Amino acid sequence: MAAEKSLHSICRWTFNPGKGGFVPGDMRPEWGGAFGTPEMIKLVKDKVSPRLPDNVELGIEMHYDAEVDDNNAAAVADVLVDCGLYLAMITPGAHCHFGYGGVASLDAAERKAADELGTKTVDLAYGTLKKAWHPDQSKAPALIIWNGSFGYDIATIGIWQMYQNLKESIAGLCKYEQDKGGSLYIGFEPKPNEGHPAMLIPTVASAILFWRKIEEEFGVSRDKKGVNKEFGHSEMIGLDHVADTVEELDNNAMVHMHLNSQGYNDGIILGGPGKYDIDHGARVNGMNIAIAGLIQQAGFSRWKGHDMQARAYDNAEQGIDRVVRSVLSWEACEKAARELDTKALMSVLGKRETAKAEDMMRGAVVSAQRYFDEMYK
Question: Please, are residues 279 and 260 in contact by the beta-carbon 8 Å criterion?
Answer without folding.
Answer: yes
